[in-house]
Each structure stands twice: as structure tokens, then as C-alpha cells.
Amino acid sequence: MKIKKCLLAINGFLVLFLIMSKVVLAQEGAAPRHFPYAGKVNALIVLVQTQEDRFEHCVQYVRDEDGVPKYEGMAYVPHCSDRKGRKDQWKIGSFQSWTDDPRTEWPLDTLDVLPNRRKLPYWAKEGRLIDLPGKRTVTTGSLTDFYLLMSGNRLDFRGMVYPYVYVHRYPQKYYFEQPAPFTNGVVKMAHEAISFVGTHPQNLPLDDVAIWDTYRNGVGADRRPDGKFDMIILVYRFNGFREVIQGSGISSFGTSGGEDGFAVSPIKLGDLEVVEGYPHGSGVIARGNSHKEVLRVIVHEIGHRYYGGHTNSAFDVMGYGSYAFYGAGNRLQLGWVQADTLNLATMRQRKTSVMRWGDCVPAKCYGLLMACLDVAT
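Request: output the structure for the sequence above.
Response:
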């Protein structure tokens, strides 16, 4: 007699590893969890550009350095159509565009009525980047949608986007050459951008403490307000923060220690203190030229609040360059999925057929697979 059982497996190969090595990942205490992983939490997202960022057209991409896209002696291609059939990709020697699709990419746009503002890209408006707090609406492809899918509806991550792109007052070089009174130029730039939002709130309800203070910063399981702003995400179109970090984002506003980098010049948004630092700080810095890139960097930087450092796994939100989803191991550590334990000894005694090659069939489970086992008795 054959009994068919279907169980939720973990990315095919990983489930085989778990079964054969009899590994059970702990549901509690397996990750630092410095940020809420269940319930509701909200973030303020501010898009930012440096003064040097005047990049509009397609370029032959080689690397990004000091906030400037470098290319081997090649000037800007006047129009994206001049790429002569080459694909729009990040591979060295290829062409990369920020204007082919303004619905998904981040065009330069024009200055607003204030010199420190530019217009938001299409994908940062009307819930496409993140859905509003207190609503039931979930926009397909938003951060809210992403976290609900990854967490199995356990984490309702919402927020608001500042209605303009903030442009820094000075060239980036100024902040790194004169960082005082802050630790480094990144902290100084973050302080300036957040301070601008505080003095130009543009009708954002920054005084509504109930929206922005939902947990004790640095302790994700403690949902008591602590008088500190929960999460501000600064998103740069380009940045050149090589002096501080070799990467596309920072899990703080510029420092990695337990100190408050803003203590020398405190900031408040409404009645809430904005704290700089990791893992207790009020925010992270991300970078991206498109909707997709911004999403993947944000979830990676917030991932540092859950897991700490990086991994080399391609199935891990903390993997170098591969983070586009929370892998099965990530979700197990946060209690976002459950795993069944199979007793191999019992199965052998019953002459049970263990999972065979080809037993896993893809299903639309956003990174998961459905594995069907034929259990013979």
C-alpha cells in the first residue's frame, strides 16, 4: 500500500541536506532579531541623491566608484537606443540604463522649486515601494508584499515615502573632508538629510508617535515603545561610501558600533529621538538605480538586524550579491516557516522509499518547493 504525503520542503537541495544530516534549526534564539519579525512595524523612506549624481543616459558600465559610474574612456551614450542591440545589464563591458523604463528605473528628473529637492521616480509613489500604515491594501511588488510573502503573513511591514528626492547641499567630497562633529562623512550626510525632512515634513504625520514607535530599538521581540524612531531608510540613487564600506548599503547611518553617532547633534522627528548606530539605531542606508535593486538592498540591510553578518550562500538574504529573498534557513530562524523532522531509522525499518531524484516539483511558493514522497509499507 502506498501513502502519498506532501510536505513543504526547502529549496530542493536544502531539504535533502536537512533530512540526511538530521539537522533541525532552532525556532527560538537562532538569530539576534534586533528588529521586529512579527506583528506590525513602519518605516519612513527617504530617497536621496548627491550633487554629483547627474547621470541620466546609458553608459558603458565598468564599475561604480566614489558615487560616479566609471567607464573605459567612454562618454555617455546620447540615447539608450544607440546601444546597437546590447542588453541592459550590469555585466562588465555592457551598457546600463536608468531611463529605458521610467516605471521601474530611477531617472534623474528635474530640480523642484527648492534646490534640495527632485521629483520621486514612478515606482516610489502610491504604495509601489511600501504600503501605508493602518491600511489593508497590499500593492504587488512592494516591500509590504515582500515581507508578507516571506514571513507567511507574520510581519506587516509598512510605511511612508518622503514625497521628494532630497539632494545634498554640498558635493560629497565636502562631507568626507569635513565630517566634524560626526564620526565620518556618511553620518554627516545622513544627519543632514534627516534634519531636512524634520524641518520640511511635507504633511507627513511625523508627530504620530503610534506610527513610528512600535518596539524597543535593538530588541525585536519587545514591542513596547521607547521614545525612539523605529526605522528610517535612506535610499541613494548612487553613493560613493568606499571610505566607510565596500558595498551598496549600510546597516546603520554610518557607524557599526553600539554608540549613537548622532549624540553630538541630536535629531528629533516629532517627539521621537532619531538614533544612529547598529543594531539599536533608527535606520539603514540602501542604494539602487531601479525599483528591484532598491528592494533587494533594503531587505538585505534590514537582514543585518536579524542575522548579523554575511554568508556565502546563494539561498540567503545575507549572501553576497545574491540576496533577493529570505531563504528557507532565514525563515526557519525567524519562525516564518515550520519544518517536519523525518526519522530515517524508522523509515528504513519499514522499507520506506526515501526522497528520490525528481521527487521535488516546483510550485509557486516564492522560493519554496513542494516535495511529494511515496511512502511504501
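The chain has two domains: 2-24+339-376, 39-56+98-323.
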